[in-house]
Amino acid sequence: MPQLRLKKSWLILLTGAAVLVTGTLLQSTLRSDTAHSAGTEPAADSGEAIYEQHCLVCHAAEGQGAGKYPALVGEAARKGRLANYDKAYAFISRNMPQNNPGSLKDDEYKAVTKYLLGLNGIPTDLSDVANHWASKEILALFDKRVVDGYTENGKLLFKPDQFITRAEFIRYFVKAKEWYLTNETQSDLTDLPKAGDRVYILTAVENGLIEGYPDHTFRPKAAITRAEIAAILARSELLKPTGPAAFKDVSSGFWAEEAIAAVQQSQLFGGYEDGSFRPAQQITRAEAAAVIYRLTNPS
Ligand code: HEC
């Protein structure tokens, strides 16, 4: 009977596949067993240990849980919820483990998120700040996710000596202040990004931090100036000057004169040894991190 023969060959195929699968599973079990007995057991609070203990119940070793759950390693994962740290952390800390949300500590969610991104080859540590003068401030803010980096060629870069843009400064500032993000989506400003930084800029507008330029632009990609930063700090901290600004290059009547005097007198943001403030000068991402750090960690 030709029909039966067909079934028989399917059966053989299936048995073969089953043997293969079992073999592979056995092999990987054996492999991880030997790795562990060789003394490479991950520390209990490492991302790897948390992953093994809390995630592999559903997501199997290569990330695919019995075909039921999304694969956590691979192209789809990299392009989806594991595309970057913020996305992955938000999803994992809110939705995973699915049967028991919020069951891990924040540090554990952070560690497992980093580990999982690492499995996908996505860098999670800044690689260009270790020896920088502002590394302490940058890394502290980075750990709190106040500041972020650029992913380039498999590396995460802070680019500390690059000028910071107006949009970046506002994003970091609003995050540092932990303000509730506005629900407002409309604005008179004509050049805001449609997504991403838009909500941070609108939140800053709502909190009276910024207004934009008289021509109704915000110029998000322009580098922010020292005078603009002084104005933002003075507004956000409600600083009033106790006297005129004592800088040779800040004339009375300059639009940010009071703000500059106020931030200097409160020692939040000062001038240079030569008695100048250099209001039109742009500031680097490292300098911005130092200012935001000082603001949120008063000594
Ligand atoms: C109880 C089973 C279960 C556990 C435990 C579990 N997951 Fe999941 N995971 C799921 C299911 C189901 C989905 C799909 C849910 C969805 O898409 O909303 C999922 C989806 C995900 C996704 C999104 C994948 C994608 O491509 O969309 C990530 C990332 C993830 N899990 C990470 C983790 C991590 C990390 C842990 C351990 C801390 C974990 N999961 C523990 C069941 C589980």
Supply database-style keywords.
binds heme C, 2 strands, 11 helices, elongated, single chain, 299 residues, 2 domains, mainly alpha, two-stranded antiparallel ribbon, Cytochrome Bc1 Complex, Chain D, domain 2
Written description of the protein model:
Pfam families: Cytochrome_CBB3 (PF13442), SLH (PF00395). Residues 121-187, 188-242, 243-299 form the SLH domain. The chain is an all-alpha fold and 299 residues long. It has two domains: 2-119, Cytochrome Bc1 Complex, Chain D, domain 2 (Orthogonal Bundle); 166-296, no CATH class. It has eleven helices and two strands; from the N terminus they run H-H-H-H-H-H-E-E-H-H-H-H-H. The chain has helices spanning 2-40, 47-55, 75-79, 85-95, 106-119, 135-143, 166-177, 198-206, 226-236, 257-265, 285-296; strands at 150-152, 155-157. It has a two-stranded antiparallel sheet. Helix 2 crosses helix 5, helix 7 packs parallel to helix 11 (285-296) and helix 9 (226-236) crosses helix 10. The chain is elongated and about 70 Å long. It starts with a helix and ends with a helix. Heme C is lined by residues 54-55, 57-59, 69-70, 72, 76-77, 80-82, 88, 91-92, 95-99, 112, 116.
Number of helices: 11
Strand content of the residues, in percent?
Answer: under 5%
* Widest sheet, order of strands: 1-2
The stretches of 5 or more residues where confidence is low (pLDDT under 50) are 1-38
Radius of gyration: 27 Å
Question: End-to-end span in angstroms?
Answer: 88 Å
Mean pLDDT: 85
Binned, the helix content reads 40-55%
**Number of extended strands:** 2
In N-to-C order, the SSE pattern is HHHHHHEEHHHHH
Write down the domain tally: 2
Bound small molecules, by name, code or SMILES, are: heme C
The backbone outline, from C-alpha atoms, is elongated
Structural class: mainly alpha
Largest sheet, strands/sense/barrel: 2 strands, antiparallel
